């Protein structure tokens, strides 16, 4: 038994090393690409003249779609901040997805809404619309509220797509805080139209513990709780390194559901959001890209390396696990739906690089880790553990994880430096040290459970408590 | 633990391989830790450097704001003396020069009229143009683009051959800034650079060109029809649009043939422009083609009917809207509602259905 | 001395307006966003209001609507980047007295301010 076991260990070690080497190469490439992309963007940004953009009649009108479900706590404030967006011509469509609370009533009261007979058609099939509301007050001319039967986020967005007037849509989470020039920045890829642009996304930041008033970030603060701080690191790694690198090779597979801009005709042609998957944001982009590739039309997906949007991340372990569980199911479902693209040269970068990478390193990784843990436990059981060997492997992985986080921190420092207090850097470094030990196992477990649940047939979104953005200073306009 | 190790090590023949893997791991760990250490040092160093530089920048900026505001608006300000003083004391380091140029450009961007002219004079009196000219010859794109921007914003002229090669540069920003340079420094014929433009004109560039044309250029507006036969489609579209923007009614006859252009985008622009110009014969020309055209052009025709036509024209194209062309149907009904606001309630999707059954 | 409220979020424009209008002999109060502006409007009366349309927290339109309801005789000058006809028309329909587009000429602005202040 000894020698077969040793052979297994040996093969496993080699596989592990190869897997690790590929990840390291990926890390290296993403670091180099991101550096170039950020540097390029900072330089290009010096030449933007907001005034010229705001005055231009050529700037396409956009429709901002924000589905809302039981957001009664903050919906009025959120809509108000959307109305003050810096952009020459836009409309806001709030889709009340059959909320059980008083969201609709609050909106009707605050914005003087009345039901109107607006002609519309379901280009994408959705649940029934109960009414479309517009304001009697000229100041709120650009607001439309759609009340419909509950159908989920994807269904709500599809309704918004059916109703809205403009051919560029911006899908956001209603409680996201946007930077004031977010729209002007996000539209830019659409304007450099040497190739057709079908979508564009930006960098998302963690809003927890930030001082927020009336829908604007007044002061950026590092989250108090460890669990939120770790997610800050995660977002740094994902956006400052991952997405930037992918966008450089034009292999971006995901534009965050929290804030993204799309070309409406392409979305409708692709069939709109898929209501049967929990990873609807990723699935839509992949489907759109696939469709363009199959039609053989040259196109590109833009990514704006600028923090445009702030969002609340889960602060309780339960909600976090539920979220990651859902993300895993979403990734798996998307990959399964589009499995034809894997390693298919017809799909170029998408097929040969992006989808394989997501398959092996985003979806498969937690499972491999889990297998590794099981294997370790098995060895432990039979007292066959080579502790020195185990220690070296463990330290190799740990030091790599730490290196990755520190690199992301470096990029943040180089580019946006939004956490200005020096003590924040030290806290983040400390968080990076603890992450692989305290946080990562939870994530791995959620991912494993996600796959398990998927096989079991679980379809729901799970636990989602909305406590309102937690921050020390919260002002309502009434309390002045 | 040690007895296990010994057992394991004794147990198999590929001992060397095992130790090798462990050696690799140890090397890897050392390498990663080294990189991490370097990065942490970089981060801290970068933070300190940035803080230091920002403090200096802020100081210079505050100085400039007071100086510029006094220069522009304070009648008691002794211009000559203050300028000399400023030149001697505050434009010495690279950073000071950069911030000064940037701040003057910022002021100039936001103000116009006498104040803008005063700023241009100040710029030259501080002899900042020599720095800009040096930047212009540098090799990297963002320095040259920035230099061209400064020159164009302050309308400082340099020999044409210095800027011309940048018109067709690989980088968007360089091309754009050189286009704006030629526009802003031109006394007549501001868009002459289009004659030698070889790369497509993006919407981004068009936004800036239009803006500069409106807010910056003071000479006579050129006849945009001269670029209607340019080799680049984007330039053709742009010219069509500008003809309407500047109400060049005399060019209507020249535009009409473009309604039959082979490129869809050109057709759309010509319909839009002729519509804006209020050309009465337009409807007659495009309604007859409604049936063969694609969706985008059909939408433009409908828009034209709303603006220039009446219910009769609507009815003419009614038969050509297919049963499943919902987008067009909605547009059609909205226009019908527009023509008959009293009948708003009766005109809805059902009525469209009824009409279908009639046919 | 006449009291002017300037509602503007561009820091450079704020400084210049403050300098120029103070030199002209007026008392100038600055509001950097719509919320602060609302607060000032509720606390005091002004002889003239100079405002942008695109402001953080509360839109320029809402502010104008509020001013027209509560102190309809106060002249309002809009200083905005918008050059679109419909936006300018909307502003005049809401009752503003003048509309200056950015980039603006400080001298011209100063003259128009004087004109409205003398009318009162």
What does this protein look like?
The complex is a heterotrimer of chains A (480), B (359) and C (120). Chain A has helices at 2-44, 50-55, 75-83, 103-110, 153-163, 182-186, 188-191, 226-248, 264-270, 280-295, 317-337, 348-381, 387-415, 422-456, and strands at residues 62-68, 90-97, 113-116, 129-135, 143-148, 168-172, 177-178, 196-206, 211-213, 216-219, 259-263, 299-311. With 480 residues, chain A is of the alpha/beta class. Chain A has a 10-stranded mixed β-sheet, with helices on both faces. Chain A has a two-stranded antiparallel sheet with strand order 9-10. In chain A, a hairpin with a 7-residue loop joins strand 4 and strand 5 (143-148). Chain B has a domain at 87-108 and 121-186: Leucine-rich Repeat Variant, CATH 1.25.10. Chain B is extended and about 75 Å long. The termini of chain B are far apart. Mean pLDDT of chain B is 86; it is low at 6-15. Chain C is globular, with a radius of gyration of 13 Å. Chain C has a 5-stranded parallel β-sheet with strand order 2-1-3-4-5, sandwiched between helices. Chain C has 120 residues and is an alpha/beta fold. Chain C is built from 5 helices and 5 strands. The chains are: A alpha/beta (480), B mainly alpha (359), C alpha/beta (120).
Keywords, separated by commas or semicolons:
heterotrimer, B: 359 residues, mainly alpha, Leucine-rich Repeat Variant, C: 120 residues, alpha/beta, Rossmann fold, 5-stranded parallel β-sheet, 5 helices, 19% strand, globular
Brief sketch in words of this structure:
The complex is a heterotrimer of chains A (480), B (359) and C (120). By secondary structure, chain B is an all-alpha fold.
Topology:
The complex is a heterotrimer of chains A (480), B (359) and C (120).
Chain A: H1 2-44, H2 50-55, E1 62-68, H3 75-83, E2 90-97, H4 103-110, E3 113-116, E4 129-135, E5 143-148, H5 153-163, E6 168-172, E7 177-178, H6 182-186, H7 188-191, E8 196-206, E9 211-213, E10 216-219, H8 226-248, E11 259-263, H9 264-270, H10 280-295, E12 299-311, H11 317-337, H12 348-381, H13 387-415, H14 422-456
Chain B: H1 2-11, H2 15-73, H3 79-90, H4 94-110, H5 114-125, H6 129-136, H7 141-153, H8 160-163, H9 172-185, H10 203-215, H11 233-245, H12 252-255, H13 264-276, H14 282-287, H15 295-308, H16 311-317, H17 326-339, H18 349-358
Chain C: E1 3-7, H1 11-23, E2 27-31, H2 34-43, E3 48-51, H3 60-70, E4 76-80, H4 85-94, E5 98-101, H5 106-119
Parallel strand pairs in C: 1-2, 1-3, 3-4, 4-5
